[in-house]
Amino acid sequence: MKKALVLYYSYSGNTKKVAAVLQKVLAEKYQVNMLELKALDEPDSFVRQCLRSLKKKQAQIQENISFDVSEYDLIALGTPVWAFGMAPAMRTFINKCSDFQLKDIIVFATYGSGVGKEKCLKEMAQISISRGAGVVKQFLVQQNDTADEQRVTLCIKEIL
Question: What SS3 class is residue 39?
Fold first, then answer.
């Protein structure tokens, strides 16, 4: 059976909800592992976190995360949109990750106001392609919709 990795960072829990729905949908065709990134050097202030994202800073993440994704056929990467970009913990993972070796990639994001959401996904897709990804699919979920499992499922199935 093919293997998939759903790896996400979630500050408020919205991205975690979407990742859980994605795991369920992918489990129909894949053996799915799910991992949550944790930023060890994260400021308590949301504004400071957004500034780190805007400046494209990386975060120190937990040590039990492997950057070797060679065993997976599909890799899904999820983040909230902060100041037009991804969370610093996701930036760290993508930049340190081993070569994506023509793997299928899904990038997804949750957002509040929507400002910068396309820019965030575009950057995640571009970095994934520069790391060797084959096909990169993407989707967005507005934070008010993250609790609606049916709506999130439809959003995911549109790209698969």
Answer: strand
